[in-house]
Design goal:
47% of the residues lie in helices and 13% in strands. By secondary structure, the protein is α/β, with parallel strands linked by helices. Helix 10 (259-267) links the parallel strand 7 (251-255) and strand 8 (271-273).
């Protein structure tokens, strides 16, 4: 469909839409973190040498899919939406095998992800942001909580214990990303921002999905407004698509890396962590139900930013 051609991932580094998506996501993340801050745990245990205790110029940025959580948040969210009859049975088969492939291969397929985004935009159009947020809480408990990688969660906690802020950075909807961040006790989330007017989704994105170069732009924008020193920050991801984000920081980590990221990490002497087991393929299998997630998102601030840049 020609009208959706602008959703196709760019092969160039940062585009105008990447910058817009990054800045919009940073704006939305800052707003959500104000609420999450109040829920931070009061006491912190001992911390390791890294991260540096009390370094308020440092923060950590974690990719979500296959880094913090096994599988794709977009598809787990879709399972919950299907259960709640947001879309019909005939749509399920198309996305079930995509999620199974993603979990087994551990890498993103741009065509699969764009198909999911296109369908998601049509699914959430006309629904209220508050409705999707409420549903997201339920879906986290149903499908996501048990898929959090304990090893990656421990890394995030180390940064929190050192007094640093920790952000999820994901192409998943900013609303569901914010739910996951809150449940894990993180600072907030940078995610794909979908346009909403008066709290209702319009079926359009602000900029483009927060993927690849757009993630780097989001981190750069957030670091600017938070007065962070990126050379003292850390970033974690499983995908070579996130090399732009990982390259921004002084402490890049390859977590459960795909082949391209593993090679790049070794070439550049980046730290590697792999929490998968030899039984991975047998364990993940083909899920009984999988679906398309919803590209939710959008705050009044993000829409205002979008309009100012027109």
């Amino acid at each position: 469909m020609a009208a959706l051609g602008w959703l196709t991932p760019r092969r160039r580094s940062a585009t105008a839409r990447s910058v817009l998506a990054g800045e919009a996501s940073a704006e939305a993340a800052r707003k959500s973190s104000q609420e999450l801050e109040e829920l931070a745990p009061p006491d912190a245990p001992e911390v390791p040498d890294f991260p540096v205790l009390g370094d308020d110029k440092a923060a950590a940025f974690f990719d979500l899919d296959n880094t913090v959580m096994q599988g794709a948040a977009l598809f787990h969210f879709g399972r919950g939406l299907y259960k709640r009859k947001f879309f019909e049975t005939r749509d399920l088969a198309r996305f079930a095998w995509q999620q199974a492939w993603f979990r087994l291969a551990g890498i993103e397929d741009p065509e699969h992800m764009q198909d999911a985004r296109d369908s998601a935009l049509s699914i959430v159009k006309g629904h209220r942001v508050s409705e999707l947020m409420s549903i997201g809480e339920e879906i986290y408990d149903e499908y996501m909580a048990e898929r959090i990688w304990p090893g990656t969660r421990a890394l995030a906690q180390a940064h929190l214990d050192a007094g640093q802020k920790v952000w999820l950075v994901t192409a998943a909807p900013v609303e569901i990303a914010t739910v996951i961040a809150r449940r894990l006790g993180l600072t907030g989330a940078l995610g794909t921002v979908a346009e909403s007017v008066d709290g209702v989704y319009t079926g359009k994105l602000v900029g483009e999905p927060l993927h690849g170069p757009a993630k780097a732009e989001a981190v750069r924008a957030l670091a600017s407004v938070e007065s962070l020193d990126l050379a003292r920050c850390a970033a974690y991801s499983d995908s070579h698509n996130d090399i732009p984000m990982l390259s921004l920081v002084g402490h890049p980590y390859a977590i459960n890396p795909d082949a391209k990221l593993r090679k790049h990490a070794r070439d550049f002497d980046w730290r590697l962590r792999d929490y998968r087991t030899a039984r991975k393929a047998a364990k993940v299998g083909i899920p009984a139900a999988a679906g398309v997630g919803a590209v939710a998102g959008g705050t009044a601030a993000a829409i205002a930013l979008h309009r100012r840049r027109r």
